[in-house]
Structure formats: C-alpha cells, structure tokens
Sequence to fold (323 residues):
Amino acid sequence: MSQATLLLDGVVGEGYLLSSLSYDDKSFSGQSQDTTIRGNFFKPDGTKMYLAGDTSDTIYQYTLSTAWDVSTASYDSKSYNVTQGGGLYIFYIKPDGTKLYYTSLSNDTVYQYSLSTAWDISTASYDSKSFLLSSQDSLPLGCTFNSDGTKFYTTGLSNYRIYQYSLSTAWDISTASYDSIFVQTETGVNNPYDVIFNSNGTKMFLMDISTDSIYPYTLSTAFNIGTASYDGSSYLVNAQEGAPNSISFKDDGSKLYISGPTTDTIYQYSTATPATITYPSTLEWPSGTAPTSPAIGDTDVLTFSTRDGGTSYQAVQAIDGAA
Fold:
C-alpha cells in the first residue's frame, strides 16, 4: 500500500463580501490614548495599525503581533499631532508608508505630510502642501486615493456626495483638480463619513453614520466613480459601535474593520467565503461524500492511499481545521 498526505489551507475564494459579514469577536480599545477615536488605517501587511483621535487631533500607532488580528494590538508609544486645521476624523497613508494625508473638517482642506521613516508616524512632518475642498462641499470629510496616487476622493456632508479629483503629480495633493465627477448618495444617507475601494478599484464602499450602514457600489471602470452603480443593498454595523465613523479592509478583502467614538474601539469582522475545492470523482471517501473546503485560515490534513498501484485511491480527512 502506498500513502500520501496533503495539507490543504483554507484561502479566500472571494473577498469584500458584505453579505458574508460576521463579527469575529475581536476588538481593541484606543481609550488609553484618546477619548474620541474615529478613523483607522492599516499597513498593507497588517502588522501596523493607526487610529485617529479627535480629542487631541492626533494619530496613534500600534503593532499587531498577529497580522490583521486587532486583538493582538499594542501601543507603540508613537503618535503625531496634526496642527494644521482641526477635526481629525479620516486619514490615509500612502502604500509605501512615506506620505500621510488627512481631511480637516474644520477648514475644508486636505493636508499632506511626509514620514522620514516609512510607517513610523512619529517621524511625520508637514509638507506645506494642501488643497481646498470647499468649492465642492463646505463639510468635506473622506480621504482616500486610487492605487497610484493620481486620483483623490472625499465625501461631503453638506451635499451628501462622493467627489473625485485628479493629481497631475502623483501623491502631491497641491496638484489636485476637481474632475467634475461625483456620486450622489442614496436617499436618507445624510452623513457619508468614509469611502474606500477594493484593491483593484472595481468596488467602492461608503460608511454613513446617519444610518450606521455600509453601502457598496460597483465601478465598471476602475477608480472612476462616474461609472459607479449602487449595488442596492446596505449593511447595518452598529451592533458593536453606535456611531461607526471609519472602515478598512484587509488587503484580500477577507476582513473588515470599523471604529468610532461611541466606544473608542476598533472591531474586526469577516467578509469572505473560502475557496471551493473540487476533488476527483475517483476518490473514495469513508462516508461517500468529500469534506467541505477548510475555513479561511484553517488547515485540513488529508491522507490518500492506494492498494492497486494507483488505479483507485481512498481518501481520509485526518485533521479537520487545524489553525
């Protein structure tokens, strides 16, 4: 008899699925740093987390000992106080960790900063570069970019819109110009705080605190919100946080994070389905039915054996869901 063992990892089949939204029972409180936590942001590898504190207009830095697991966060004793404007709610960090941007609710301006050490928020300094947003909305709040830094997006609390801008020099906010493109939010969506995209710009997600819900859109042209269409669904997310201000996704869309000032806490959710594994019909299983795919993050151990030199195989799931 010949045998072989297969370790089968549970991977993401499809991410960014709000229809699969479920709370992971994992959270982290930022109250020790600030009593009004609003925005959140993650390093692309999930090992660093940043929270915005509106009480002191400060961004705080944390390390996650397990990537993307907020329950493993610890404060790095590193922070940066933004002295330009005020009303620090939503912010964005360039994917290489060398630039920081935030939209000031107090004076309708987005400001740009440089980090001399990538992802070390304590090394931030103001670039003396900004862009006034009041020509579109007197209460701009959102702050996000496309993947190459040539597009900027903000939300407006006065007109209930999402706006798009072009940057003639990538990542230089002072070179921004309005594209005369906006998305009008749905009826009743009167406080669009945060807007983000999936990794390839074909999905957009709006966080509204008047309804405490997330609204998904599909873009037929990546990162062009002029091609956005509302998916027709919304997802209530106030079970943990009564005023959800800001959202982030894990890079593969399998996790969603929400923060807000009611609890000053960031909460973690799952938003994906596992990949489907199809086994050859010639495999013989003890129950006559092949096992389901392993859950995301789990590993199944399968053992295969043959007694006739490979003409037929018997399969057994030796371990189900080893983390």
About this structure: The two ends are 30 Å apart (CA to CA).
